Amino acid sequence: LQGNESLFHRYSAESYFLSGDYGAALEHYDYLLAEPDYPAKILQQAVFTYSKAGEHDRAIKLCQQGITQFPEESFFVYHLIHNLQIHKLEDDTLEACLSGVDLHPDILAFEKARAFLMVYQSVEQMQFYRDRYCQALNQLVQTDFSDQKTQKQLWNVFASSTNFYLAYHCKNDLALQRQYASCCHQFLSQVY
Predict the structure, then answer these.
(1) Full-model pTM
(2) For 3-37, b where at least 16 C-beta lie within 10 A, e where not — what string?
(3) How far is CA 42 from CA 94, 131, 172, 190, in A?
(4) Position 3 pLDDT exceeds 70
(5) DSSP character at residue 164
């Protein structure tokens, strides 16, 4: 390890991350990000570590950088939305951050719709987000996912988070849960 400085920093960052010492891990990730031609995986791990450390502004900036640098990696889109959701989700901020993102239009619409607020200011606002989610889910269910790139993006959608936030809307979610499960099943049966 000592002959290869990058490898040393990578192993150190991963080790510190696993031990919960995010500050030390970030020192090593920052070193790796200063190198030219670092792989997308390093940036992904740095985003995840900044997010775990509660430094959401930095994680958001790195996600935006990742979207520009590695447009084929949908990881950055999902983590951008996640960090915006935790930190400061506003529709105009979300739209600005996602401009130019190369995702299947129905997947992008679903990802935006899945960005629920954690605290609502009014019943009307809650209904707005719920309606947007329902509309995007209906579009997603109707989509043909035979393209390999689109399938990879959809894997990230289903793996990145869940739809349990619907429970915060205090309504009967059984139909929406079934529709989401049906979409997952339809996708998996098409892929396999």
Answers:
(1) 0.62
(2) eeeeeebbebbeebbeeeebeebbebbebbeeeee
(3) 24, 37, 42, 32
(4) no
(5) G
